[in-house]
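Researcher: We plan to redesign the surface later, but first we want a full-length starting point. Tokens attached.
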């Protein structure tokens, strides 16, 4: 997708999510809404979901797409990299990421972002996969950072 078209779509999605997330304070309901809207509006997404931080583990939460890994081993994979770096991780080619966890062998690229609560603790990770290599850019990262902030607003 052309970057300007992608940016316009993200702007519209962000505005829609800002309104929708105000209807509940429940972070799981907000995550489910974020997943559903992003997954069905962004054609380069093949899997869209959250992994929840629970007792030092990452456990699958709300998602859209094929079956997911139920739990991610600590310290491995792109989701844990987002937790450890406290920021977005963009992987243009998952085969080149050390320790990549292949929940779906069709995944070619990935972006993950930590979700912070009001105490600046990571409570979840937004994980988005694409079946296209190099699908995620700074545009995705920029808007998804704004979107994950809506979970605990």
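Model: Full-length starting sequence:
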């Amino acid at each position: 997708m052309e970057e300007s078209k992608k940016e316009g779509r993200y702007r519209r999605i962000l505005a829609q999510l800002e309104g929708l997330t105000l209807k509940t304070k429940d972070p799981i309901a907000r995550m489910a809404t974020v997943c559903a809207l992003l997954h069905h509006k962004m054609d380069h997404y093949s899997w869209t979901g959250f992994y929840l931080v629970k007792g030092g583990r990452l456990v699958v939460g709300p998602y859209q797409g094929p079956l997911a890994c139920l739990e991610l081993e600590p310290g491995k994979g792109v989701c844990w990299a987002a937790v450890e770096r406290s920021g977005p991780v963009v992987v243009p080619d998952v085969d080149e990421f050390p320790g990549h966890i292949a929940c779906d062998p069709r995944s070619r690229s990935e972006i993950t972002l930590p979700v912070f609560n009001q105490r600046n603790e990571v409570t979840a990770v937004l994980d988005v996969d694409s079946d296209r290599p190099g699908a995620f850019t700074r545009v995705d990262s920029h808007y998804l950072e704004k979107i994950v902030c809506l979970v605990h607003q």
